Predict the structure.
Amino acid sequence: MRSDLARLIAAQICLHACMTGFRMAAPLMALRQGYSAAAVGMLLALFALAPVFMALPAGRYADRRGLKKPVALSVGIASAGAALAVVFPVFGVLCLTALTCGAATGLAMIALQRHVGRLAHGPTELKQVFSWMAIGPSISNFLGPFAAGVMIDSFGFRAAFLLLALLPSLAWFWVRRTVEHEPVAPELRQSSGSSWNLLRDKGFRQLMLINWMLSSCWDVHTFLVPVLGHERGLSATVIGSILGAFALAATAIRVLMPWLAAHLRESVVIGTAMGATALLFAVYPLVHAAWAMAVLSVLLGFALGSVQPMIMSTLHQMTPHHRHGEALGLRAMAINGSSVVMPLLFGSVGALIGVGAVFWLVGAAVGLGSPLAWMLRTPPAEAPQRERP
């Protein structure tokens, strides 16, 4: 399983780095061309907008076709969108590139997550594989923007776009030899009904609500810490370092979690993370020193970074084997929808009642919602997690 998992993580990094690189480079080019901050904000929103509408069809497609066909389609879409930016580096085309890269990454991530879940035998392996998979986006969030920035400074925007356009092809290189799992039987697909039927299960509804709340906390921190830092008179370097400390802490906890998986229970980790997040959000607006904000950022990174592997493990245990793709699609739709809507909402509410009050409101909501995590139930540990070949 280790070599298979390593190849899938590498494929994930290549596709995701293409998207994160464009997410940094495209707005920068638009600003240099004289476009307003509002136009740049719209451009950034397009990266998350396409997955909102594509997530459910992508999940059903992954359930029908497995891994390779969705990834091949993603590679084609991302490469075509990126190539357009190389040939026509204008704002309208950059918007199209944002849509295609966002859609391609969303489709590939769902297919990869579904396949990885089926590599695992039992809850412990589920936590391990999803902890390893969660490291991939942490790497690509650094690699894509860094590579694009170096290329922009050295050779210009077109060279950066060309490099990013080549990354999806590397994803196919890593995936092409992967052995597919048994496809979902047609009679099971036909008897499943609408994807929304999954929400009839109380546990699944609770899990989606928890996931949305914690995803919103991630967005709050990313969006409002620069505003809070500006109010405190901190420099851009210091604000960037505070956010960087958060990212490093989230990555560090995910590196440790595979070794601790046998000793972790999903409901305990998620419930503890929600309680810690509520407490940290209560304190965040009260501190003014940069070092104190950095400490809180690290602690928050540990808390929020631990959540995704536990959510993914729980999701795969509580949903029917033949509907994992649909469940992942619902989750992706909620997360990307939150990423589009929540920054706008936070900005509006923050302007009315202050940035600190937004931290307190979101922290209170997460704290009040934490009992939902402790009530999460998963099947017995001996339940099989995938069909044996």
